[in-house]
TrEMBL record:
It is found in: Secreted. It holds the Pfam family E1_DerP2_DerF2. The keyword Chloroplast does not apply. The lineage of its organism: Eukaryota, Metazoa, Ecdysozoa, Arthropoda, Hexapoda. This is Protein NPC2 homolog. It comes from Dinoponera quadriceps.
Length: 149
């Protein structure tokens, strides 16, 4: 099952605390195995989650990089991505350069390793241009695993 949020502010948030402005906006977010009625996306250890983000830049963009972080309370930890250069990632679904006011759809797989403990976090996904300016930055509330009974 894939759940899609279209500008559903209560499920995902923009990273307003980090950026006074961005060079674009997210228009659609999809995460596999999420239930839209939950306040957090539940990701199970040992399973991969498919992530898709549609966004629209307000300006032309030559180069796009993606950064992913786990945010727990006030601690932000960068997550390793196989190909952070979106333009060079054949699986990203995006070809560069990007044209302003056109929609683009980014695809990635979030690997949830077997043995991850049960916990809550936000996944911060940030798209930046070659100069490091934010194009889009979103937070996705996540729960890893469920409590065993």
């Amino acid at each position: 099952m894939v759940t899609t949020w279209k500008n559903k502010v209560d499920m995902y948030k923009y990273c307003i605390d980090l950026h006074n402005y961005t060079l674009g906006r997210a228009t659609n977010i999809s995460v596999s195995d999420c239930n839209i009625t939950d306040s957090r996306c539940i990701l199970m250890p040992g399973r991969n989650a498919l992530l898709s983000v549609e966004f629209m830049p307000y300006v032309d963009v030559e180069q796009v990089y993606v950064r992913m972080y786990s945010v727990v309370s006030t601690v932000t930890v960068p997550l390793s991505l196989k190909t952070p250069d979106v333009c060079k990632d054949p699986n990203s679904g995006i070809q560069c350069p990007l044209t302003k006011d056109h929609k683009y759809k980014y695809n990635n797989t979030i690997v949830i390793h077997e043995g991850f403990p049960y916990f809550f976090l936000d996944i911060m996904l940030e798209f930046v241009n070659g100069g490091g300016e934010a194009i889009v930055c979103i937070l996705i509330p996540v729960q890893i695993g469920t409590l065993s009974k």
